[in-house]
Amino acid sequence: MGRSYSEKTITFINWLKALALSPGVLFSAGYLVIYLLTNVYLNSALKNTILQEIETATENRYTISVEHLRAGIDLQSVTLRNLEFIPVKKQNRQEENSSLSLPNLHIEQVNLCNLLFSRQCVEHSTREISRHILCINHLLVLSLPQ
Questions:
Q1: pLDDT at residue 91, rounded to an integer
Q2: How much of the chain, in percent, has pLDDT values that exceed 70?
Q3: pTM of the predicted structure, to 2 decimals
Q4: What is the dihedral of CA 53, 58, 61, 65, to 10 degrees?
Q5: Sheet containing strand 77-87, strands side by side
Q6: What residue ranges in 6-146 does DSSP mark as E strands?
Q7: Burial class (CB within 10 angstroms; exposed 0-12, middle 13-18, buried 19+) of 128
Q8: Which distant-in-sequence residues (6+ apart) come within 8 Å of 107 by Cβ?
Q9: Which residues touch 19 (CB under 8 Å, ≥6 apart)?
Q10: What is the rounded CA–CA span in Å between residue 34 and residue 51?
Q11: Beta strand pairing status for 100-108 and 77-87?
């Protein structure tokens, strides 16, 4: 006669399968995938859009560079690494070309949860991040000696 259900032993492979398919592991893996994809999207498409928006808002007086954008683990903040404002020299001006740089700029209350799923969220996040960068730029420009 064959074994009954209660007589089967739990093997290591079956235990790993059960663990991998448990709700906690599936949720954690799904969240990790969304977090990683959000960071990839931030550093590819959204970073370029933000930089272009800032340059347009400053009437092309500054070239902006950002090394890296990173979403907070809760997807409610973003950190910009090595943010730099480089004044664009005009041909008829003899002004000093001093760039302004920040090693880290942390921006709170930027909802990135739906960034991958909603065009409206992308536009809102772009506006919020750009607004914070422009405020920092304005404060730095005002603090420079004239």
A1: 54
A2: 84
A3: 0.74
A4: -40
A5: 62-71, 77-87, 100-108
A6: 62-71, 77-87, 100-108
A7: middle
A8: 77, 78, 79, 80, 128, 129, 132
A9: 25
A10: 24
A11: antiparallel
Could you tell me how far CA 111 lies from the centroid of its own chain?
10
Q: What is the mean pLDDT of the chain?
A: 83
**pLDDT > 60? residue 93:** no
Neighbour count for residue 45 (Cβ, 10 Å): 12
Q: SS3 of 134, please?
A: helix
Q: How far apart are CA 115 and CA 113, in angstroms?
A: 6
Residue 80 has pLDDT above 90, yes or no: yes
Inform me whether the pLDDT recorded for 130 exceeds 50: yes
- What is the tens place of the pLDDT at every residue in 26-47? 999 999 999 999 999 999 989 9
